[in-house]
Amino acid sequence: MLELLQYEHFRKELVNAQCTKFIDEQQLLHWQHYSRKRTRLQQALAEQQQPQQQDLK
Prior knowledge:
mainly alpha; Mediator of RNA polymerase II transcription subunit 31; activator; transcription regulation
């Protein structure tokens, strides 16, 4: 996003409400996907560690 702000054309498009709404929605979708993916990864790691801990007992 910071890189795009370097371009005048992009900055001019930010005045357009449809453009800014699209960017806002895309950022929200990105973070929702990131959060879900991270949660699944953490759960998978926890599930992998549980059998290993039981084997040590």
